[in-house]
Amino acid sequence: MTVKQDELTRSVTEIELDHGVSAGIGLRSFGNGMISVFEVQNVRVQNKLSLDEWDDIPYMERVILVAVNRINRAMSNLQAEAELRSTKGRK
Questions:
Q1: Which residue from 75, 78, 73, 49 is spatially nearest to 62, judged by alpha carbons?
Q2: Torsion of CA 78, 81, 83, 88, to 10 degrees
């Protein structure tokens, strides 16, 4: 999914939020382009899968599950951002 921002079309996963909340915790992958362990396990838990069940899923399906989770999270963040901007305009 893309959004037009600053005359450019960007992926929703690249949009900076004005009203984000940070816990000051950095989650990073072990290598460039890799997915963090936290994110993988978060997707596994959200899908109510045991470690063995997760390991039984083919690699590309796991990648797709993580990608869908990222897109859904980005869309939720953008929706929340739009709602905050909308309420600020009503005051």
A1: 49
A2: -160
Average pLDDT in the 6-33 region? 61
What residues have CB less than 8 Å from 9, skipping those under 6 apart? 2, 3
Any idea which residue has 């072990």 for tokens? 30
pLDDT on residue 5: 64
Tabulate helix, strand, coil % of the chain (nearest 5).
Answer: 55, 10, 35
Q: What's the rounded Cα separation, in Å, for the pair 7 and 4?
A: 6
d(CA 49, CA 81): 31
Q: pLDDT tens digits for 36-76?
A: 888 899 999 999 999 999 999 999 999 899 989 988 888 88
Give bridge partners of residue 3 from the DSSP assignment: 10
